[in-house]
Design brief:
- The chain is mainly beta.
- The protein has one domain (4-115): Metal Binding Protein, Guanine Nucleotide Exchange Factor, Chain A.
- The protein contains one helix and ten strands.
- The longest helix is centred in the first third of the chain and has 7 residues, at 30-36.
- It is globular, with a radius of gyration of 15 Å.
Length: 146
């Protein structure tokens, strides 16, 4: 039974999770802006054992965007699919924009607001943090959160 399913833009890569995804926040750091092509990233964690990835065309590519941080994307259409840390490869962070199923959770925090794009406006009441969110507000599963 899958809880969530997702895919890249061209459909070459598909995935399913067998458990619920973790809580999430919006990350406004420069790296997430570049990786997403948007003003922020939205990612939720899941244990790799609970993720079934289909890539029959062999399109999944990986890029080490910073020391120890691996970002995986479709080599055909460029869609970012997931990221993980070399030190905890058993945990991955799914790019929520790739979901094909409903995701009913709401963001718990805006992180790295100090790096927010000048053109992006935050107009909600979600707590904002200059860097990492306090773990009592949001635990960012599979991230470098201290």
């Amino acid at each position: 039974m899958s809880v969530h399913a997702g895919s890249c833009l061209c459909g070459a890569i598909r995935y399913r999770t067998s458990t619920e995804l973790s809580d999430f926040g919006y990350c406004h750091c420069k790296s997430c802006q570049k990786a997403s092509g948007a003003g922020h990233g939205a990612n939720a964690g899941v244990a790799r054992d609970n993720l079934e990835l289909e890539d029959s065309a062999g399109q999944l590519r990986e890029y080490e965007s910073s020391p120890g941080k691996i970002r995986a994307f479709c080599g055909r259409c460029g869609t970012p699919i997931l990221a993980y840390l070399k030190r905890t490869p058993e945990l991955v962070r799914i790019r929520l924009g790739t979901l094909d199923t409903d995701f009913d959770k709401s963001a718990k925090a805006h992180t790295f607001v100090s790096e927010k794009a000048s053109w992006e406006t935050i107009e909600d009441d979600v707590p904002q943090f200059d860097a990492w969110a306090d773990r009592s507000v949001l635990e960012q599963v599979g991230s470098k959160q201290p």
